[in-house]
Amino acid sequence: MAKPAQVHASKAESAKMARWMSICSSMADNIEKKHFVYSNGGTARTYNSAVKRSRRSNCALYVSWCLQKYGALGSGQTFYIRRGSSSIRKNFGHWKKKKVQVIRVNKRASRVNLKKGDVVLWSGLGHTNIYAGKNSSGERLWFDAGKAATYGHHSGSRFNNIGKKTQGYLNSKTVSYIIRIKGL
Q1: Would you say which domain of life the source belongs to (predicted)?
Q2: Domain count, the chain
Q3: Tens of pLDDT, residues 76-95
Q4: Is the pTM of this model over 0.70?
């Protein structure tokens, strides 16, 4: 009887992962279709507010909005890591411990055992993205709403490539934290 329970748990985890990846993908598509631009100022704490107001986003807001839609963050709860910092800044008191696990890492990415769906905060870069697994060549794929995901690769440029892509340069960078959704 133990095997059917394991299979059932595996199917449930698979369904949760599919939902999480779908949210990440649809949020990326919506940001691109609605002509959002990269910005660290004049932003909104929820996706719906941003659509109505500013149509501005950045790496951390994209990830925060995905986590809000999934239910791992409350509406309007956001977080980020500053360039040159190793601490998480957030506009709320406590993480939903039943929903996420916050893991302090402080290791080079090539030495970190990431799990598909992990939210990764990068030391020194002031950057946040979502690990989306590996491609057929074994390269890591990322949902990434940094400046490199825009036409001009700078603030004020319109997003055009947030979806799954390789970011080989990240393998030599330091992962500060992983935020792992429980049950994926």
Answers
A1: Bacteria
A2: 1
A3: 999 999 988 888 999 999 99
A4: yes
